[in-house]
Amino acid sequence: MSRSLKTRLEAATRLPELNVVVFALLLNFPWEFLQVPLFEQMPDAPHWEAVKTCSQATLGDAAIMLAAYWAVAAVRGSRTWIAKPDTAGVALFAMLGVLTTAIIERLALAGLWIDSWTYSAAMPVVPGIGVGLSPLLQWVVLPPLVVWFVKRQIRTV
Questions:
Q1: Which residues contact 92 (CB under 8 A, 6 or more apart)?
Q2: Of the candidates 4, 43, 53, 149, which lies 20 to 30 Å from 84 by C-alpha distance?
């Protein structure tokens, strides 16, 4: 590998955006599969259809996470906020994901989103908002993990 290419690849691995997307994909993909029993038709879907659906949801999750990262960067005035995160930054990052997910879930449940879905009886639903607990918990649990992984990656590369 040429020195120039190696230098460019090393620089790319330090980009916060790239790291946010990579870790978002790695963490959201298994979460989407773990949620399969909580959605109607998913447990009985053909294997490839379930993989496709979970992959599409994971790409959407990564896009939401990247948008939330950029929103926090705009508020903080720095793309590198994630290298030295504070509680308020991480909370805003997670809350933007929770809010976005709640809106998408409501639209999808009403058949007004790109795709629509129905919860199975196994999905706990948050009273008052009618949104599944699992999709909301996804955005409480995973963003702090993404921040932790990205922070470590940026500092050690």
A1: 68, 71, 72, 75
A2: 4
Block residue for tokens 């639903």: 125
Angle at 30 between CA 26 and CA 32, to 5 degrees: 115
Six-digit token string for 88: 């308020």
Tell me, yes or no, if the pTM score tops 0.85. yes
Closest CA to 54 of 138, 148, 147, 140: 138
According to DSSP, the residues that pair with 126 across neighbouring strands are: 131
Average per-residue pLDDT for the chain: 95
